[in-house]
Amino acid sequence: MLVKKAPTLSPDEVAALYDRIGTAQDTQVFYERPAVDLLIEHGAFADATTVLEVGCGTGRVAERLLRDAGPLETRYIGVDVSMRMVQIARDRLSAYEGRATVERTDGTFSFDVPTASQDRVVATYVLDVLAPEAIQQFFGEARRVLQADGRVCLAGLTWGTRPLGRLVSALWAAVHRLRPSWVGGCRPLHMCRALPADEWRVVHHERVQAWGVPSEVLIATPC
Fold first, then answer.
1. In this structure, how many other beta carbons lie within 10 angstroms of the beta carbon of residue 58?
2. Which of 61, 117, 153, 159 is deepest in the core (most CB within 10 A)?
C-alpha cells in the first residue's frame, strides 16, 4: 500500500543535508530513545547473528546492538547515503573491527548483500524521509535479504493520538511541507499502513510519545 504523497528530499539532497548535520544528529536522542528501546526490546536481537542497518547515521543504534543486545558473534553491516555519517559511524564502531562494516550507498535499495543472509534489517527514523515509492522498494529489498524467520525492525515519526502529540505532528508535517530540510527531511508517517500486508506478518506494533513527539515502532517477519 502506498502512503500519501508528500514532498521529499532526493537521495543527493539527503546526503548533503546529513553531511552538514554530522554528529548533531545525536541531539535527537531525547525523543528517539524510547522508540529505539522498544525496538531493541521486541526485536529479539539475542538471536541475531547478522544485522543490516539502513540509514545507520552516527552508529548510535549499532553500538547499542553490538554492545548490549546481540551475541558476540553478531556481524553488522551499516549503510548510509551521507559520507560524513559513514565516517562518524566507522569511528564509533572501531572497537568492533571485524564484526562491523559501514559503507556508503547511493540511496537506491539494491544492497550488495546475499539473498536470505540477514537475521535482522533495522531502520530507525529512515522511512519517514523516503518517498512512498522508495518505502516500497525498501520493503522489497528487506524481504530479499532476510532469512525466512528474520525480522525487519523499524522506528520512525508518526501521527499523534493524544492532544500534544497531535499538535506536534501536525506542526511537524506543516514545516515539512514548507521546507523538508528544516526537519531533517522527516515527516510523520503511518509505517504499518505502508507495510505490504500480503508479504509481511506484524510481530509488534506500538506507538510511544516523548517530549510531545510521537514515534511508531514496527517489527515484522516475511510471510
1. 26
2. 153
C-alpha dihedral (136, 24, 118, 77), degrees to nearest 10: 130
HSE-CB for 105 with a 13 A CA cutoff: 21
Query: CA torsion angle for 210, 169, 28, 151 (degrees, to 10)?
Result: 80
Residues composing the chain: 223
pTM of this structure? 0.93
Residues 24-79 pLDDT 10s: 999 999 999 999 999 999 999 999 999 999 999 999 999 999 999 988 899 999 99
DSSP 105-151: --S-S--S--TT-EEEEEEES-GGGS-HHHHHHHHHHHHHHEEEEEE
Q: Examine residue 6 and state whether it is found in any structural domain, yes or no.
A: no
Looking at the domain assignment, is residue 1 inside a domain? no
Using an 8 Å Cβ cutoff, are 116 and 145 in contact?
yes
